[in-house]
Prior knowledge:
- The chain contains 5 helices and 4 strands; from the N terminus they run αβαββααβα.
- With 168 residues, it is of the alpha+beta class.
- It has a 4-stranded mixed sheet with strand order 1-2-3-4, with helices on one face.
Amino acid sequence: DMDYGPGPVRNDVQKTVWEICRQMRADMPQVLISCIDLPINVSPDVVQACLSEPLNEYRELMYHEGTWHTPSVINSSGLAKWKQENKKEKLNKVGVMPGGFHRKKFGWIDETVFYKDMWALGWKPVLKRSDPPAAPRRTDLVFSENAVPDVKPILNSIPSGTEVTFRK
Length: 168
């Protein structure tokens, strides 16, 4: 799964389309198939840009926040080793580590051979067209100690569940 934003932002339809396109490329290597992921509200000049150089040379493109990205494969052996070393200790039912015994680990052999075949997919920026849009800044929030809150009563004439029960 390749996320297109900070944190786990997944789009299952997008994943399916990319997988189908990759499968078609694998089945028919003689046919050039380009898969381009564009937001629904993108302007026509952005669409035209992906059909001209240098973007037309890529088989897979994604446009996100003003930048064109292409998938890239990154060796993640360092991440895999760090993840293995920082595993959470299993706790017993009481919430305490069983035995309470800790053993010092020494690297007697080169452990990089265990992790050399770990790879991750990510997005590499190819061409930056514009700066990402700035998030709108809220002006209605006042964070000061001297601010007097504007308290208004809630005008709710709908009876609560308790009132309805007692009326029966």
